[in-house]
Design brief:
By secondary structure, the chain is an alpha+beta fold. It is built from three helices and nine strands.
């Protein structure tokens, strides 16, 4: 299996909340279409500075991460982000990557959206066992 990329729509979840309350128009909700590397081995989603700026995301905290080489590095966490893929939605925060770095779709939003990586088609897809709505485990 090679690298898997997918197209997603990202929205500023604070804006969607204000829209639901009638405080801003739907056209004022900041959103962008992106292509991300699907990485089920990554814990969180990771967005670059360019995308965070387009969405107007705020830093919500600083988090330490252990890198592949064993070193520890601090990263800013931004959010909240509403993620849309086909008929699925997830709400999450994301690691902020420098510049225009390649972005990652990690395990947390993938689990929430109930999507799978199809190994033969080499693509992200809605879980065929639950085609109409995400089904999550509570155990």
């Amino acid at each position: 299996m090679g690298l898997v990329y997918t197209n997603l729509t990202l929205l500023n979840a604070a804006d969607t909340y204000l829209n639901r309350r009638g405080e801003i128009l739907k056209t004022d909700v900041r959103q962008t279409e992106v292509t991300m590397l699907v990485d089920s081995g990554a814990y969180m989603m990771a967005v670059n500075e360019e995308t965070a700026r387009k969405l107007g995301l705020e830093i919500v905290r600083i988090q330490n991460f252990e890198l592949g080489n064993g070193e520890t590095e601090e990263f800013n966490i931004v959010g909240p982000i509403e993620v849309h893929f086909e008929n699925r939605t997830a709400l999450c925060n994301a690691i902020l990557l420098k510049g225009n770095t390649e972005m990652l779709l990690g395990a947390i939003p993938m689990e929430e959206m109930d999507v799978i990586i199809h190994p033969l088609k080499n693509k992200l897809m809605v879980n065929p066992e639950h085609p109409d709505m995400a089904q999550l485990k509570m155990k």
